[in-house]
Design a protein that fits this description.
The protein has a seven-stranded mixed β-sheet with strand order 5-4-3-6-7-8-9. Helix 2 runs antiparallel to helix 3. With 265 residues, it is of the alpha/beta class. It has seven helices and nine strands. It has a single domain, classed as Rossmann fold (3-Layer(aba) Sandwich), CATH 3.40.50.150. Helix 5 links the parallel strand 3 and strand 4. Helices cover 33% and strands 22% of the residues. It binds S-adenosyl-L-homocysteine (SAH). S-adenosyl-L-homocysteine binds next to strand 2, helix 5 and strand 4.
């Protein structure tokens, strides 16, 4: 099911709309709902059983969505099996966190489908100690996956509210080393460049020149390119002399990369 853009401009109406969307996905059988809590269960047992439930759902996600679709990098699969995706989605969508699709995170934006996160991470070929830039922090989930893999992560988000929430969430969950910033990711993060990889998690109609420039020789830019609804995931490698090598991983659907002048509200 695709997630329609949320166009309401009141925070309350937006939250109600998101609740409605999540309920609609749940009733369409998107994922298993929370078991009814047992009033007599002691708190610790409840916590343990909730943790076990998320562990099971995460394992299933790795096997049925990622391995089944030929994500092969064992380290990427392990990271996807470790990072608690349910902590990165709004409370009222939590039971849908491990479903095979994107989810609304507020402000008309989405957290990407788990498979797409794994595919982009695999394409970025992260190694511990490398430095990577993410454009489009959103919930912080993709940044957390890269951080879990030992990468020094810089992540930029255009929308201040999402940027602040993601920064707080990343700290709370122990990904305190991720550097976050509110701003226009089109321009990259020149002070921290050059990067081993740049992962763009919003769709651009062309490849932003600053992002390619900020790659190290041998570095890789992973970016959805094309008009909204008609994008292709490109992996652009910078050769030793700055030359471009491009391969395509197939059609994708991302929210658009916006510039400060065309903010949604
Ligand atoms: N990577 C995110 C999902 C990102 S959705 C996650 O793991 O949850 C795409 C995000 O890109 C949105 O939050 C959107 O606000 C942001 N975005 C769009 N244009 C941008 C720009 N020019 N600079 C930085 N972020 C941008």
């Amino acid at each position: 099911m695709s997630i329609p853009r949320i166009v309401s401009d009141s925070g309350f109406a937006r939250a109600r709309l998101r609740q409605f969307l999540c309920a609609a996905i749940l009733s369409a059988g998107g994922c298993t709902a929370d078991p009814t809590p047992n009033a007599t269960t002691p708190t610790q047992e409840k916590k343990d059983s909730a943790a076990a439930k998320w562990d099971t759902q995460r394992r299933q996600m790795v096997e049925e969505q990622l391995m089944a679709r030929k994500i092969k990098d064992a380290k990427v699969l392990q990271a996807m099996g470790r990072v608690p995706r349910h902590e990165f989605v709004p409370e009222d969508c939590r039971d849908l966190a491990y479903r095979d699709g994107p989810l609304p995170i507020g402000q008309g934006q989405t957290i990407s489908q788990p498979y797409i996160v794994a595919l982009m991470t695999e394409a970025a070929a992260p190694k511990p100690g490398q430095k990577m830039l993410e454009v489009g922090t959103g919930s912080g989930y993709q940044a957390a996956i890269l951080a879990d893999l030992g990468v020094e992560v810089y992540s930029i988000e255009l929308l201040p509210k999402l940027a602040e929430e993601a920064a707080t969430r990343l700290k709370r969950l122990g990904y305190a080393k991720v550097q976050t910033r509110t701003g226009d990711g089109y321009l990259g993060w020149p002070e921290a460049a050059p990067f081993d990889a740049v992962v763009v998690t919003c769709g651009a109609d062309h490849v932003p020149a600053p992002l390619f420039e900020q790659l190290k020789p041998g570095g890789v830019l992973v970016i959805p390119v094309g008009k909204t609804g008609d994008q292709v995931l490109r992996v652009i490698t910078k050769g030793p002399k700055g030359e471009k090598q491009v391969r395509e991983l197939g059609p994708v659907r991302f929210v658009p990369l916006r510039r400060p002048g065309d903010m949604p509200e």
